[in-house]
Amino acid sequence: MENTATIKPKNSILTISRNLWENSGMLLIFILLFILLSIFVPYFFTLRNMIGLGLSVSMVGMVACTMLFCLASGDFDLSVENIVAFSGVTAAVVMNATGSIFLGIIAGILGGGLIGLINGVIIAKAGINALITTLAMAQIVRGLAFIVSGGSAVGVSDSRFFILGNEQFLGIPNPIWITIVCFIIFGVLLNNTSYGKNTLAIGGNMEATRLAGVAVDKIKILIFTLQGMMAGFAGVVLASRMTSGQPNTSIGFSLDVISACVLGGVSLSGGVAPIQGAIVGVLIMGTVQNAMNLMNIPTFYQYVVRGLILLIAVLIDRFKQTNRKN
Amino acid sequence: MTAYLQFQSVSKNFPGVRALDGVSFKVKSGEVRGLIGENGAGKSTLLKILSGAYYPTEGKIIINGTPQDFQGTRDALNAGVAIIYQELNLVPEMTVAENLLLGHFPLKRSGFIDFKKMESIASEELSYILEEIDPNKKIKELSIGQRQMIEIAKALLHNADIIAFDEPTSSLSDKETIRLFNIIKNLKDKGKSIIYVSHRMEEIFKICDSVTVFRDGRMIETFMEMDKVNHDLLVSRMVGRDIKDIYSYRSRPLGNTVLKAEKIIGPGLKKAASFELKKGEILGFFGLVGAGRSELMRLIYGAEKHSDGEISLEGKQLRIQSPRNAIDNGIFFCPEDRKDDGIIPIRSVDENINISVRRHSMKAGFFLNKKEERKTTDSFIKTLQIKTPSRENRVGSLSGGNQQKVILARWLAEDVNVLIMDEPTRGIDVGTKNEIYQLMYDLTEEGKSIICVSSDLPEVMGVSDRMIIMREGEIVDSMEKQDYSEEIILSKALPDIAGEKIPVLKKKEN
After folding, report:
1. Across the interface, do A192 and B368 touch by the CB < 8 Å criterion?
2. Which of A133, B254, B465, B484 is 20 to 30 Å apart from A108, CA to CA?
3. Strand B58-63 to strand B66-68: parallel, antiparallel, or no bridges (unpaired)?
4. Which one has a higher pLDDT value, B200 or B334?
């Protein structure tokens, strides 16, 4: 025991603040940003705007939960935006055909899950790079979305379906509740199950993890399958909000999700993936977007700002890593 | 063009290890100097210092009387040093000419590459080494021997005066070896200083003018005249030291056969391998690099699938298709390459230790029992004396010895029948080495069995009760403790003695 006891660093204020910066630097930045925006941007800190902000990040938040696992294992998935479109359309078509909202939702989720399963099998079993696999799958799935929908939006007439995306519970819209529940479930999965720990281990060193007896292939397939199901569910929620399944929706969404995770300190090379980081990343992205809209900054400039924020976040992360090494 | 190379009390320290200790010798112009020694004797460290890849802790390299200060490989290249490694540094998709001139493409005035000039320079250079190679052929279309020639041509093109060969014949055929020797003679006649590193004694006698023996990072002896030495003398200089102390071997009664491997066939093995391991035994596996030791162990553990053969544990036949199957039967493996195959460097000590054993302590079969996991970690930090600031510390920041202890803890937390340790103490300081040996005796006294694979002969001799010797993908002999003799073991493990032909690549095709 003496080894562990003696080398423990002293809990001076300096080390505490350094640890805080190391572990929750982005959270501090978010809090600071939030306070500044509340003071200087009119209408920012109002209930109405807060709910709007929550709604605007709910989709990214849901899919970030599973993208986090993807990134943690050292891979990523570029096909989620197309699964969102495909599943929304599929859900709408099945609802219209069967008259059952339940069947429609299940079809959307399982459709997305099937695509994720195919992604996972190709990546894990055939050893094909995740970039290429999910890029190819993205094209296929977007095509499928158009084929299933016949090229245009598929409206849903049964208003019970809209509860999912448009109703409120305790004054907070359902999509926000759904996102919160997702974060809780996946946070527990990540930190309190061997599925989560093995995912992080795979990202840290895949061969060592395999030799430690972990069924690496199965876990990778599971990661992509859950990713597909979650994107499918997000697509269904989006369809509910828009009262229709739209085949051309959510372009650029995959990169938004990945950006948000990376912004929160999730490592692109795998092995490091704090769930609170993903939450903070999603919030920063959404808050900046929201504030820029309130300040009437033209869309063209908004792209530039969002790109800059991501770059700066990655630079800060790199700086922290080199610091850690020395 | 005359050049000579001098090492002046060159030393190199790594954390906890002195890899080279005050090495001084001189290679004249037109001399071919052989370097021999066991694995870890310091030859490759010396070559890396010569190439500028390592910076010496103490001492100097002197070329033509001028002390050199190599800050990187480029400095060494500019000073006329070229190292031809076992693994070649060529771009397979590019042509011979492009590879030769990579980084120095001749340009036209317009700024575009002058392909005609490039081709003519290349074919001129190739003509010196008597090769009929089309400079427009891609590297990937050439044989390994031809690629080596290209590497040599590259060295000459940079006007290298000092050329070092690191195990150059390990993948060459007989014919290619002869051609290489002719080229080396040619270079020698041109007044180049040449260093020739090889395990193959026969080659040393064939091509070298003098030979220097290394052991444990020190230069033991240099023989300036090859007719005054013989094979046995060199081998005795390569080994030869009292090894009893570090290992403090403890004997113990052995039980019945626990693990039985019969006619195992798979990648890396040339012939079917069979062996038995008794209860409470430490079975040593010795062989040089490429002998198939690690490959055989990976097949037993299921890291690689064996294509034929049977593995049984206490008479029960096992079906081992993956590490999972081995682990479920109490067979565990500490890999040779800790960094790449053992630890997960960016995760904590806690997670690295519990990665496998946690399956026994899960709550509701799904949730981690973190309290139990922390208890496991803390108890191993204590009993194995793992030096870490805390259990949450990243494993990657610990020393090699402590990383090895973490991997040991990972398996000792399980119910061990057989523990396979591949190079258990590579890169670990002497004190920790001793701790690990003691642990091995403790485990076997508890009735567990250990396979200790190593290329460090004194280590295998010191800790094992019995030894199996491998050479070039097959088991060649087995020996009891009382029969151990470094000379005999080494001569069995060395690929080319007693009139045997130099092994050729083609053999693999049979």
Report:
1. yes
2. A133
3. antiparallel
4. B334
CA angle at residue B149 from B223 to B510, to 5 degrees? 90
AA identity, residue B206: K
Q: Is the pLDDT of residue A76 over 60?
A: yes
| Measured CA distances, B190 to A128, A214, B131 (Å) | 51, 58, 18
Encoded tokens for A59: 């989709």
- Per the domain annotation, does A257 fall within a domain? yes
Phi, psi of A17 (to 5 degrees): -70, -35
Contact B292, B270 (CB under 8 A): yes
Closest CA to B208 of B86, B28, B39: B28
Q: Which residues of B19-46 are buried (b: 16+ CB within 10 A; e: fewer)?
A: bbbebebebbbbbbbbbbbbebbbbbbb
CATH hierarchy code of domain B256-330+416-510: 3.40.50.300
- In chain B, residues with a C-beta closer than 8 Å to the C-beta of A188 are 367
The Cα–Cα gap between B228 and B212 comes to 13
A interface test, pick of B349, B355, B378, B393 with most A CB neighbours within 10 Å: B355
pLDDT of A8 above 60:
no
pLDDT value at B110 more than 80: yes
- pLDDT score recorded for residue B84: 87
**Domain range list for chain B:** 5-238, 256-330+416-510, 343-414
Q: What is the CATH number of the domain that holds A262?
A: 1.10.3470
Residue with structure tokens 């033991």? B220
In a domain, A214, yes or no: yes
pLDDT, average across residues A175-186? 96
Q: Classify residue A232 by its DSSP letter.
A: H
Tell me which residue of B125, B114, B7, B131 sits closest to B62, measured CA to CA. Answer: B7
Q: pLDDT: is A62 or A28 the higher one?
A: A62
Range in B36-40, B398-402, B409-413 with the lowest mean pLDDT:
B36-40
Same fold, B5-238 and B256-330+416-510: yes
The pLDDT of residue A19: 67
Judged by a CB distance cut-off of 8 A, whether residue B399 touches chain A is no
Range of the domain at A269: 42-321
Average pLDDT, chain A: 89
**B218-223 and B210-215 strand pairing:** antiparallel
Question: Cα–Cα distances in Å, from B334 out to A253, B7, B294, B376, B398?
Answer: 44, 38, 11, 19, 17
What is d(CA A281, CA B335) in angstroms, rounded to the nearest whole number? 38
Q: Under 8 Å CB-to-CB from B280, ≥6 apart: which residues?
A: B252, B253, B254, B255, B444, B445, B447, B448, B449
DSSP lists the bridge partners of residue B469 as: B286, B477
Distance in angstroms (rounded) separating the CA atoms of residues B362 and A16: 33
- Whether A169 is in a domain gets the answer yes
Identify the H or E element spanning A190. helix A174-192
The reply to whether A14 falls in a domain is no
Residue among B337, B347, B405 with most chain A CBs within 10 A, to mutate? B347
Number of folded domains in chain A?
1
